[in-house]
Every structure is written in structure tokens, then in C-alpha cells.
Here is the input.
Amino acid sequence: MSFYEMKELLKRKLRDKELGIALERSKKSYLAKRRRCLRKYSYIKELAKEVRSIKERVLSKLDEFVKQAIDSLEENKVQVHLARTAEAAREIVGDIVGSQKLVVKAKSITTDEIGLRSFLLEKGNEVWETDLGELIVQWLGSKPMHFITPAINIRRERVAELIRENIGVEVDPDDIPGMTRAVRRFLRGKFIEADFGVTGANVLSADTGSLFLVTNEGNGRLVTSLPEVHIAVVGVEKIVPTLGDAFKVCDVIMKYAGYEAVAYLSAITGPSKTGDIEKTIVYGAHGPKKVHVILLDNGRMEASKDPILREALYCLRCGSCQYLCPVFDLVGGYWGGDAYVGGIGVLWNAITGRIREAMIQSFFCLGCGKCKEVCPMNIKTPEVIREIRARWIREKFG
Amino acid sequence: MDLSSIVALIRRNEQEKFNPLGIDGKSFSEWAKGLEIAKGGEVVFYTGGLYQIAPHIDLLVSAMKMVPETMPKEIVRIGERFSLPIGRIVGKKKQDRFNKIVRRIFLLVRDRIPDIGYLWDEESYSGALYYDIGMDFLFREHAERIVEAMRRNGVRTVITIDPHTHHILKDIFPKYTKADFEIKYYMELLDMSIPLEGYVVHDPCYLVRWSGLLDVFRRVISRVGEPDESGITANCCGGPIESIFPEMAESLAKKRIEELVAVSRKIVTACPICLVNLWRVCEKYEAQVQDVAEVLEVGL
Here is the structure.
């Protein structure tokens, strides 16, 4: 999209009253929850600082930590694949899944980054997003509009219509629990019959090779335990040195996303196994027999060496910066990028090779600095965005 | 207006008038008419021209909104218009108001530093816009010329009067030039504390976040009303985006005004960009927006 087209799109969104109402409702609710969390758990700001320094340490020698993580994962009988590009990652997953299979997914921005759902669908698979918000996005054929709340731009009235159109169930637009029940019933069978469960991961501990998933709906648990094969696509920047560090990261993510503690904090260390009969280890007792981890580079390794772009790799995807950005407040995730939206999305566009897109989007940032202030990692998004502009202008106008 | 046109326009105006709007720099010192201020010296009062330029930005925005995006020829014509000395085009009343703010701040400062100097015709715009947009080549040249002018005039300490100029001089100049001056914001010199009951404060991003001067601001004004999102997490007025997306700037200003009038219709701020951008929409909300220097008059 050109700068002009983008501006026209945003102009339309500025006038979109429905969008305004949906964003206002979400932001209000988030702000109240966030304030409560930060007040009640006063240690969290210090813990966030500690997490930043943990991640600084990892990113200064990312190669080494990737190696350590691979060794630990393999020791756990996980099949590890290192994908340098989005295309390579898609191909790897495509080869594992094949076609004519049933795939259930948990919400993962990293899989959105590589366009995995549409790729698997094109290969002739049945693919279902199981996070309610992400399922709405799938039905709409649009993009996730927020890290935590992908359907942040959609009012409940529209959700009722989507359920009617896609599942054939009539629901009252004021009956949000009824809508949730209808989706639960619809997806139940998919979980049971699925051949593959696909997820991302919020953190990966290099010492134990444990994948962490921070979720609320419970779909993450089902996706990672019911199918025979679990495939996790994990950005290499998610690696932290130890299991203890991983818990710290999860705590910070939860609190800044507005949850005191999420309903389900899962740590997955290898496939399901039992040794209950004569101490003979058998894989796939009740959970997956196989676990694949695709470690995704897609520009991250290079960014970790760039003192400016490295900032984005600290991102925990808590969504604070999106909820509280004044521009996001008006136009939502229509600004920023495809998988990663808002100001932080501009940075991720630049990292994942979409430089032109990043440059165009960069001009819609106010540089007001609020995102940096509310970010648990204190990511210098406005400074990076300014630098992206400067690099572009230098190239274009000399 | 597309990006190339904006970059071209800014470049030409910089070449001709040493500021992005092509305004005749002579009008920058109008506020000082009748005052006897030494030229240069160890401590200088530095306006950076932002209060003086601000009412012109307002006009530029109104003009840009009228220009259809697909008419580059029209844009060039606007560029020509803005290369003229446009002090006469902007309403005199409006320009007077902004000049008065600068004059008031100067008098407050001179009370504390009686022999404070001023660069007069050698003072210029700070270059903040070039830096923000990412025109680093233009910014570096511009900044170096300012540093030279300060050296020529024996400057060691610079007193700034708006948050954008302050941040650029204090935090960015040292990264691009050999500037080693002491940079102080005028509020840091004030020992007054004016109670502002009945007012609500809009904290400028560049004052409280980029320059970290929230405490200083609150020492100068006390007992002022605060909107829901205030201080370090205050919402932006939208001003920074007005030169490339005036419609967005207006929507942001409206949103911010709504948050502010929920507390009071008497709004106080401390930045010419916030002042212009909030002021443009305040009438509809029956609100008034004032600069802190206008309110501090009671203390003079």
C-alpha cells in the first residue's frame, strides 16, 4: 500500500463510528485492569526491568542461546528445525502436515507473520483457529488487529452475525456467553479429530528446552495435548537462559496484558511419555507422540546485531503499547502492518524484511513517546520509527 | 500532500529562509520590541522561533486540508506562498498573542537573570521538524550553523522556552554536533508556585516524557485538575502529525479535549504546538486553552 492509499484508509477509519465504539470499550476495560494489576503487584515494574536485562543478555549472543536451546529441545526428543525465512518455515510445516489433514491452531502472531494458516489451507487442509478472537478474524478473512485481542475492532453485534453465517446458530447479540457456547460446541469435535495442533510460544527456556504458553481460553491446552503431533513456531528472540527466567517473563506478560494470573500457564517439555510398564519409555501416552519446534529467524538474527532494530526483539507481545497509543485508539490495527500492528508493528515490518511497508507506516507515528512509557520493556519504539524514516529519506532523497 | 512534495517544500524553505515554513526570520524578534536586551553573552534566552511559527503552522494545515492530494501543481503554488513573509497573512491578533507569550516568559526569566542576552537576528528555528521527519542531513547542517552562531556570541548557557526546542537542544544537538552548552528550561529558574484551581492541565509529550520535566512543571503550577490520563502517560494533542496528516491531528485533538473538558473547560498547557492544535478544536467544546505563561501573568 502506498503512503497515499494508507492515508486514505486511515481517513476512512477516523470516520468509522463502529470501530471507535469497539476500541473505546476495549481500551477502557484494559486500562482499569492494567491499573489494578500494577497497583496490586508493585514488584512487577522491577521484575520487568530484570526481564529486560535478561533479554539484553540473550540478544547480545543470540547464536549461542539458539544452539543451547536446540540441544536441550533435542535432548527432550523434540524435532527441531531452524528456519531462516518465512518461506522456509512454511515449507517445513507444510512437509510435516501434508494435505487432507485437520489442523487446529492456538493464537500465534508468529504463525500470522509467516502466513501459515492460508498456506496450509491452500495445501488442501482443514485449518481452524481456536482462539475466539482469532477465529473471528479467520471468518472475516482479515488480519489480527491486536496482540491480545485480535478482534478488537469488532462489536458483539457483528460477532453474532458471523456465528449465524459460519456455524448456522442464531445468537442474541447481547448474549456474549451464548456466542462463546456456540463456538465451544462447534470447535469441540475439531479438537478431538485434529491430526495436528499448531501453536507459537511466549517463551522458550534454553536450559530445559521448555515451551511456555500463556493463555486464558483453554484452547492452548487442547491444541497441545489432544492431537498426535504438536508443531510450535517460535521466534528465536523468545529464548531466555533458564526455566526460572521463563516464569519471570510469563509473569510480566500476564500483568501488563491486564491479568493478575492467566487461567492456563503451560510449560511443555517434549512429547507426552510414560514409563509405567517396566520403566520402558513410550511416547504419546495421552498427549502428542511428536513435538516439532520450528525456530524462526526471518530477520531476527540480523536485527539482534543492529543497535536500533534490536529494540523490537525485546517485545513480549503484551499489547500495552497498542491499547494505549493515541493513534491506535482512533484507527486500531489498521495502522502498523499485517501480523504486527500499531507502532511496534512498524518495527516488526522492518525486521521481517518488509522495509518499504515499515517506512510508509512510520509516518503515522506521532513520536509522542507514550508507548515507550507504558511498555514493560521500555522499548524505544518512537526512536526506532524515527530512524526507519531517516534511513528511508537518506536513501530516497540523499 | 504526498511525502516527496513535503520534503521538497521543507528543503527549499530551509535553503531560503532557514526554517521549514519559509517565514522571514526577522519577525521572530518582534516580541522583543522596545526591550533593551544585550546581543549574545554567556546566558541567552533562546526562543527557537516555535511560538512565533506556531500560528503559521495552523494556517499551513488549513491550507493543506483544502488541497486535493492529487494536485501536485497546487502544492508547488502553496510552497511559493509560504516562501513569502507571511506575517501579514496570519491574523495579527493571533500573532500578537503568541508574541506576548514569549515576552511574558522573557520577563519572568529576566527577573532571575537580569543580564540575560538574546541572539536577535542570529537566533533561528531549532530544526526539530527536520529531526522528527528523519531529514538528518538537513538537521545536521542546520544544527551546526546554530552552534556556530552561539559560539560567535560567547554563549555558554541557553534558556529554552518550549519543550520541542528544549529536547532538541539538550538531547539531540550533542549527538549531531559538538555542542556542549548548558541547556535549561525556563521553568527550572522559576521559584513560584501558582495555584490553578478550576483549571485542567494538558501535559505536553515533549515536556513530561522526552524532557522529564513533569516535576518542574507541577512545581510551577499547583492544585491543578488532572484528566484521567495525565502526567507521564498523558495523551498527545496530535500536533506532531499535523504537517503530514491534518485530519488525524484534528481527531486526536478532539479526543484529548474531550478527556480534558471532563475535568474543566479551562485548559492550561505549556507548548506552542499543543496550544495551536488544541485551540483549533476547543471552540466546539466551549473550552479555552491557555499557555502557562498567560496564566502566570498573575505572578508578574
Observations:
- Confidence is low (pLDDT under 50) at residues 70-88 of chain B.
- Chain B touches chain A through 32 residues (CB under 8 Å).
- Chain B has two domains: 3-188, 192-299.
- The first helix of chain B runs from residue 3 to 17.
